[in-house]
């Protein structure tokens, strides 16, 4: 049986447990809408407690049946075959991601699916090349002890991912987890079930043993998400999503003292100094504010601009925002898709109203665009820029997760650093300047997990990635991923 089937125009998406696509027997299912049009796209089986139990037990059995002890070179080879197979089925993944999210085809190709390949290949390399710590310890009487650490898989890992970059974030976690010899139970967002289901097909095709990769579909509270994160059989949770949900999951996992790795929200700042190359900064800001319709945890929602270039930057950014092309996601000239859902649009539009009430001047956008009858049912909003707000306003403090930014002037470097760091979040920052010393100086003082100078979203997957404050706990990427997805045992041998 296949994971996704077509019945008329609506696909049926099943859970995938122990190498089988399980149909719900009289169970619940939910409709997945196309965010660009509002049409029903798929009917998704919702996993109940029993099925989540089955998934966790199957994962455990797969570990015990030998997956946990597979030589790392075999696991790395399997990851590379998975990357090759995704490459062969590239356009299927692109189509599935577009249908679920409404994101433009160019982005699905160049970012989402491209990064899935890179995630598998990078973590195959990182795991295969990893060494172990060892120390020669001096003891009394001239004797010595050899200490070394062996790293064992963490075990059954719960992987909970959001809807904004579904395949990218899923593979960012699944690739290192499998490379380290874990078994995973994945709960994709209820908004984006398709690529996790397709990945099951690929992993089966390249010979991953049954039970190592399981997918359970559903929601959070009183559904698959909660059944999974509260399950006594899981050994750790890796989660990307909102800070509120992260905090909730952490509380339930804390009862059984399991490790967590959380990448949560952001309210990221960009600082633009007056010595900057204006065009370069505007190109960078256009990406960092509007990429993926502002639905990236790393997107900029606060832009601090040195006063004497403020008007020029504001006018330039408005001009670029107004040339973005909203439209059919499969059209190659489309730059900007819809928001993920009507519910999310209601939240973003609520902030449009709040901005006005707070005295903002809306430079562009602030409404719902008319894109014609075909797209009238989609969750579209206009790219939006405000001035006249300050760090005291909720619009500048809370994560909106839409194609929006507040532009705020500053006079001195110290003031800009203070404004940028004045947030409970701490995921990313971008500094735009032609003064290299200033770039390093300011970037280092950002209270964030990643601080860019004259770029945005440039990623080195071997670097540690994560956030401070409300933006998360722990780091993934390179060795940080190997550390999270393994448990070390220190062996001490007296020589
Ligand atoms: O996220 P949730 P939502 C932010 C963004 C957005 C807001 C809400 O501001 O507007 O969060 O989005 C699962 N136990 N980000 O509601 O709820 C859920 O099913 C276990 C930032 O979609 O955090 C989904 O798979 N799991 C962000 C995942 O958690 C639970 C990306 C994320 O959903 C659960 C997405 C529970 N009790 C939203 N409740 C980023 N940092 O990139 C929910 N889930």
UniProtKB/TrEMBL annotation:
Catalytic residues (UniProt): 263
EC number, as in UniProt: 1.2.1.85
Keyword NAD: yes
PROSITE patterns given in the database record: ALDEHYDE_DEHYDR_CYS, ALDEHYDE_DEHYDR_GLU
Enzyme class per UniProt: oxidoreductase
GO MF term list: oxidoreductase activity
Keyword NAD: yes
Keywords: NAD, Oxidoreductase
Span of domain Aldehyde dehydrogenase: 23-490
InterPro entries in the cross-refs: Ald_DH/histidinol_DH, Ald_DH_C, Ald_DH_CS_CYS, Ald_DH_CS_GLU, Ald_DH_N, Aldehyde_DH_dom, OHmuconic_semiald_DH
Similarity comment: family membership: Belongs to the aldehyde dehydrogenase family.
Protein name: 2-hydroxymuconic semialdehyde dehydrogenase
